[in-house]
Amino acid sequence: EHEFFHKGESGGTFCHSAYDLAIYLVETEYNPSRWNVYAFHFSDGEDFEPSETVASARKLMQMGVNMLGYGEIQADQYASSRLMSTFLSALQLKTRYAKESDFEIFLGKDESTPFLGVVIKDRSHVYSALKEFLRKERQF
Fold it and tell me: pTM of this prediction?
């Protein structure tokens, strides 16, 4: 837990490379017609090419994955990094708050955008985020 919230690295982050690898795996090994595909990505929100990341995320969702989950850790030390805001505007996500806290949740507008995003601002949000990602009943 300590490492999850305190590991800090500096340097170039290109999140689209992870999505591109997921696309490759879906194309070559995990066809959504035969597999239930759920891709998850947690980040501090730093991304040097957020528009490329959104393009890769869209392609992955268009391939028929069940869900693309993104969790952004917005602790004080990461105050300037916000990939989530790029997803929010580019994918026209709906915003809601979890009933039990000020925990933010962002959903795709319909089934063509099976995106679920969460913002983790506090340690207490980690469990809420995992529950939200793994919830059985969901409507996008």
Answer: 0.83
